[in-house]
Every structure is written in C-alpha cells, then in structure tokens.
Design goal:
about 550 residues; 16 strands; about 30% helix; about 35% strand
C-alpha cells in the first residue's frame, strides 16, 4: 500500500507556529505591506519620465546627474531591464561608449536571449566603427524573435548596406516597429529619394484670447474706434503628396482659416477663408512646387457674404540649406469691383541653425497690385526676422518682428479723397512684434501662449479726413497646435510604457526636430494672406 504524500511545512510556517497568534498576525501584516510597497515602487518607475529627464540633463550639460540617478535605479530594480538601458543611454550621451557597452553586456550575460539589449550592443558596435563585430552579433541564433525585433534587424542590416556605399530602399515588409525604428525607416525612405515628403501632412492651430482692437489687420481697412473683444481663430492645412520616388509628383493642398469675435461690435470682422492648391512637386533634394491656388473669403460669417475670390499660379523653391524662394501671380476679385486687381508677389526666406538650441529666420518680400480703381494700385514690401530657442523640459520660445511699407502711388487728388478721405497719396508703415512660449507637449498636442503688438501709421488718417487708418493692437492668445505626418507605407508603431528608445543618431534627430519647428517660415506666407484680406472699407 502506497504511503499517502503529505506536504512539508515551510521554515517560515514552523517559525511562526512558535510565535503567539496576535504577534504572528502583526508580522504577517507587516510583511504583506512591505511586499505591496515593493510592488508599488516597482510599478512606479516612469520610464518615459526618466528618458525625458535624461534629455533635460543633456540640454543643461548635466549628464552626470542622469548617470548617478540611473545607477541608483538599476540597484533599486535589479530585475528590470529599463534602468540598464537608461544607464547605457546616459553613458552613450556622455560620449562614453566603453561604459555603455559594459553596462549592456552585464545584463546580456545574464539574459543571452534578450534581443532588445543585443540591438543596443550592435548599435554601439556600429557607432564605434566595429562593423564586423556588429554583423557577427546579428547572426545570433535566437534573434530576431518577435515582429519588432525583426523590423529592427532589417533596418540595421539596410543601414549597414548604406555604410558600405550601397543605395538601398527602406525595407518594405516591416509589420510592427518601435517609434524610433519608424523614424529611422522614414529617414531611410527619404534618403532613398531625397526631397521626398511625407504623403500626408496635416497641421492645425486653435487660438483663443483677447484683442484690444478687432479692426487691426481685419478685412475692413479703416480702424475707427477700437473694438475690444474676446477672439478665436482656427486654422487647418493639409497636404497630400504622391508617395513615389519619381522626380515629378502630384500634390494637393487644402486649407481653411476661421476667425471670429465675441462682442456684437466686433463680430462683423469675422471671416472664413477657404483655399485649394492642386499642383506638382519637382526634384528630390532641392524641390520646386508649382500649383494653382483657388481662394474664397466669406466675410461676417455666419452670414457668409462673399468678400473676394482669388485665382493664382504660385511657386515655391526649397533647398536643404534652408533657403526658400516663393511667389505668385493672379487675379483677386472683390465684391467692390473697383478694388479687383491683378497681383504679383515674391519673397525669400533663409533659416539658419546657429547651434543645438537656436535657429533664426530672415525673410524679405515684395508685392505689386494693379487694381481697376487707380487709387487702389499698390506697391510694397516687408522684412521679417524671427528666432526659435529650445528650452529645457521640451519647452521652446519664439520671438520676431515684421516691418512693412505699402505705397498707394495713384491715390492722390480727388479720387484719392473719395477712396481714403485725403488728397495726399496714401502711404502705410506697419510693424508687428510677437513672442511665443511653448510648454511641454501633451502627446501630439502642443500648447503655448502668444503676445502680439501691431501698429500701423498711415497718411490716410483722421488728420487729413474723416477716416482713420492708423491703429494699434495688443493681442494675448492661448494656442493649441498639432502637426501630423503620415506615410501609409510605414510600419505600424508599437508603444509600451516600459520601452527605452534606441537613439540611433541623437544629434541629427534633434536637428531634424528644430528644422521642422522652423516652419515659422510660413509666417512669410501668412503675412501675405493677412494683407490680402486688408484691402476693403465698409
């Protein structure tokens, strides 16, 4: 007869049997609380927060603080991989590849089938120009394992081919990848055909705040008495580019701009502006965009009174060096027929990255308008200067000034008096200053505050007639914006809270971000759009 098996009491059970019941219960409760506290501490490690702090320390030239902090985290969480990768990333950011590898190998020796850590080791070998060692490590019998590992292996393999001088296309069979791998794929996809743009790009901005003068820069030209009002503006712009490597690609742009005011006195200055821009994009490194632009402006919405419609041919020549040349010619048809005009304008902008935290923009533009009514003929130009500064904690600041002069060369005499209330030729000087402060983004949403000061000095002012074309305006706004770029050919992105990004090329990725941020070059076109609306009186 088989003996019945019995379970053997644990040492802890034997020990607690000798302790009185109340004391045993207290000890058990303390042990449970300690275990729960340890689990809570383990779960409380915010990898994304630590990664951001690393970049803040880098910006403050205080990388040693991150190294010390990550050492402590590694000791506090010996069974978690994230502190190890964070510490290795900190050493790498400090230019100490030897210790980065040392930290990675210490984990890898205990976990020889960890493909993610192995990919960090492979990339360190590539950065230290040990390409042969990197290729040997990529033949690991267990790696790649899952879809994200397979995507990373294909990308690194293609990157190694690029290092050997081969012209390769971005891998086209990737299913799932980490965010930084998707970014690397995008970079390789564009390098295969320089000048290629993301097929889908959508930008949006929402502003709300206060203006001391709703008439300033509005579609109604005269300033008159100032109308203080709460105000809001919504602008959305979308571009669609054919995702091909050919030198000629179809392109389509759509945009809408809504501006509104809260008070009854200022509400008449509200408007909706709609535009569509079909065209083609030429070139790969230096690109030339040619397009037709149709535009419809509805005044005093929701009444939807048509203010003007526009038909233009436009071009935009952009070079990787940061130079931009743009211009257009066309017909703008106003509800008031005398102001209908032919117009031609052109501009030049230059962006320059000064260092790791500052970018500047300089621009100049000119314009000439030939209207049906002689007093509305106009010639003018302006100069724009702006600067963008990266701040700690993913904050940023923008500041700039824009000056302009417009001369209505046929505006004097009796016709000028009928048009502007003065027999003198009208001349306008404008000045605009703005400051923006952008706070850490909330996911894909950026938010900040903006202050703007606008002033115009016109000869057609109250000293010469009944109308007043001078104005001053103070504007304070809260801004929300997003910039979405999508490529249907790109792999899907995998996101986890415990992931530490592999920083493929830290400096170039930061530069790319700053260059993307310098779409403040759009201010050159935005000012042109504002002037197009500022051409009519009641």
């Amino acid at each position: 007869m088989r003996e019945k098996a019995t379970s053997r009491p644990s040492l802890f059970a034997n020990a607690t049997r000798r302790i009185p019941l109340p004391l045993s219960a207290i000890i058990a409760l303390v042990l449970q609380l300690f275990s729960a506290s340890a689990s809570a501490n383990a779960a409380s490690l915010c990898v994304a927060c630590e990664w951001q702090q690393l970049h803040d320390d880098m910006a403050a030239n205080n990388i040693g603080a991150s190294i010390d902090r990550f050492k402590a985290l590694r000791d506090a969480y010996p069974n978690r991989k994230a502190p190890v990768l964070l510490l290795a990333s900190a050493y790498d950011a400090d230019g100490n590849g030897y210790w980065a590898l040392n930290v990675l190998y210490s984990w890898y020796q205990a976990h020889p089938n960890d493909c993610e850590v192995l990919s960090f080791i492979i990339w360190q070998q590539i950065k230290q120009l040990n390409v042969g060692g990197a290729k040997e490590l990529m033949t690991h019998p267990h790696c790649p394992e899952d879809d994200t590992d397979k995507s990373r292996w294909k990308l690194i393999s293609a990157y190694l081919d690029e290092l050997n001088g081969q012209k390769v296309a971005a891998p086209s069979t990737l299913e799932l990848a980490w965010p930084e791998d998707v970014t690397l794929w995008q970079s390789m996809w564009q390098r295969a055909a320089p000048g290629r743009k993301p097929p889908i790009e959508i930008r949006g901005a929402l502003e709300t705040g206060y203006t001391s003068n709703a008439q300033a820069g509005s579609s109604i030209d005269t300033a008159g008495s100032q109308s203080k009002s709460a105000t809001g503006k919504l602008q959305v712009q979308a571009w669609f580019v054919a995702p091909t490597a050919k030198k000629v690609r179809p392109v389509m742009g759509l945009s809408t701009r809504l501006s509104g005011y809260l008070t009854d006195e200022a509400r008449k200055y509200s408007y909706i502006d709609l535009a569509w821009q079909p065209g083609i994009l030429l070139g790969r490194t230096t690109t030339l965009r040619l397009n037709y632009k149709g535009n419809l402006m509805l005044l005093n919405w929701p009444g939807k009174e048509i203010f003007h419609e526009t038909h233009r041919l436009e071009f935009e020549l952009s070079a990787p060096s940061g130079n931009l040349l743009f211009g257009g010619v066309g017909r703008r048809i106003y509800a008031e027929n005398g102001r209908t005009r032919w117009e031609v304008d052109a501009g030049y902008g230059r962006t320059k990255i000064l260092n790791s935290w500052a970018t500047v923009l300089l621009g100049i533009n000119g314009r000439y308008y030939d209207a049906i009514g002689d007093p509305y003929d106009e010639a003018g130009g302006g100069i724009l200067g702006a600067a963008y500064f990266s701040l700690p904690h993913t904050m940023s600041m923008r500041t700039g000034v824009n000056t302009g002069m417009d001369f209505f060369f046929n505006s004097g005499g009796d016709l000028g008096h009928l048009a502007y209330g003065t027999i003198d030729k009208r001349r306008d000087l404008t000045f605009r200053h703005f400051d923006e402060l952008w706070f850490p983004p909330l996911g894909q949403l950026k938010w900040g505050i903006r202050y703007e000061f606008n002033v115009r000095d016109s000869r057609a002012d109250s000293a010469h007639g009944a109308s007043d074309y001078d104005y001053q305006e103070h504007r304070a706004m809260l801004k929300l914006s997003f910039d979405l770029r999508a490529n249907p050919l790109a792999p899907r992105t995998r996101e986890t809270s415990d992931h530490v990004p592999l920083d493929y090329d830290q400096e170039s990725s930061q530069n790319a971000q700053r260059i993307d941020s310098t779409e403040i070059i759009d201010m050159l076109r935005a000012d042109e759009a504002a002037r197009a609306a500022s051409s009519c009186v009641e």
